[in-house]
Design goal:
Layout: E1 7-10, E2 13-24, E3 27-38, E4 41-45, H1 53-63, E5 69-73, H2 79-82, H3 85-90, E6 95-97, H4 102-107, E7 125-127, E8 133-136, E9 140-146, E10 155-159, E11 164-168, H5 179-191, H6 194-211, E12 218-221, E13 227-228, H7 235-251
Parallel strand pairs: 4-5, 5-6, 6-7, 11-12
Antiparallel strand pairs: 1-2, 2-3, 3-4, 8-9, 9-10, 10-11, 12-13
Helix pairs in contact: 6-7
């Protein structure tokens, strides 16, 4: 079984790259999970696919023995981000997400997708709304940003004081070193109807405006490595270009 490595980002916040339920040729696909750790326990932002649940649970237990999972915050209702939600709920961890993605959660993913992109359905969520606050003591105070487009209920989490943004799939991950995941994200964008692409573009612009600051931003994306905007300043614009190109082709 492949082991998961939890890498520290800032004090109390860790990153894990989890395998996705499919591969494109020989290339592995990965989605990100972020773990905030304080005295109360573990707070997960996304939880990976259903098949990764045992591996994720073992990695958490090995690195943080005796610390329970206190909550799981979901950026959206796709299998690579919320597939392990039901077994975590079974362990007593509440699931917090946008109620606008409840149709996806209840269906176990979007209608018509391959079986690999489905997951055990669930509906027991604590709703999160735009501008809600998620306070994780001694780690971060995240503001919820509703970012519809990729899904109706896509969410970002923004810690203004520490300049951290968890984006879910608002951003398309990098091509270099992550070609397979990048290709899958672009294919997903091509499946979106024009109205959803327009919403995605609007959410992208709104999130960039809400988080703008000369000191930069630590971005924790749904796919690909975390990065700082001072080191990679053009990532919002790069995603916007890809979405606009896709939208133009659909409107021809």
């Amino acid at each position: 079984m492949v082991r998961i490595t939890l890498r520290p980002l800032v004090p109390g916040l860790y990153h894990a790259a989890l395998r996705m339920p499919v591969a494109l040729g020989p290339a592995a696909l990965q989605a990100n999970c972020y773990v905030a750790v304080n005295a109360a326990g573990l707070h997960l932002f996304d939880c990976g696919s259903y098949g990764e649940f045992p591996t994720l649970l073992r990695a958490l237990a090995e690195m943080f023995p005796a610390k329970p999972v206190r909550a799981v915050y979901l950026t959206h209702g796709h299998a690579d981000h919320c597939g392990a939600a039901l077994p975590l709920l079974g362990l007593g961890a509440p699931l917090l997400a946008s109620p606008e993605d409840l149709p996806l959660f209840r269906n176990g993913g979007p209608a018509g997708v391959p079986k690999a992109f489905t997951y055990p359905p669930f509906s027991a969520i604590t709703p999160l709304y735009d501008r809600d606050m998620v306070a994780i003591q001694d780690v971060a105070d995240f503001q919820v940003l509703h970012a519809p487009g990729h899904t109706a209920g896509s969410l970002c989490f923004f810690d203004r004081q520490n300049r951290i943004l968890i984006t879910g799939d608002l951003l398309i991950g990098p091509m270099k070193g992550h070609l397979a995941t990048y290709a899958l994200e672009v294919l997903t964008a091509k499946r979106q109807p024009p109205v959803e692409l327009e919403r995605h573009l609007a959410s992208l612009a709104a999130a960039e405006a809400a988080t703008a600051n000369g000191s930069g931003l630590l971005v924790l994306p749904g796919h690909g490595p975390p990065f700082h905007t001072l080191a990679k300043p053009g990532e919002f614009q790069r995603t916007a270009r890809i979405l606009k190109q896709t939208l133009r082709k659909k409107q021809r």
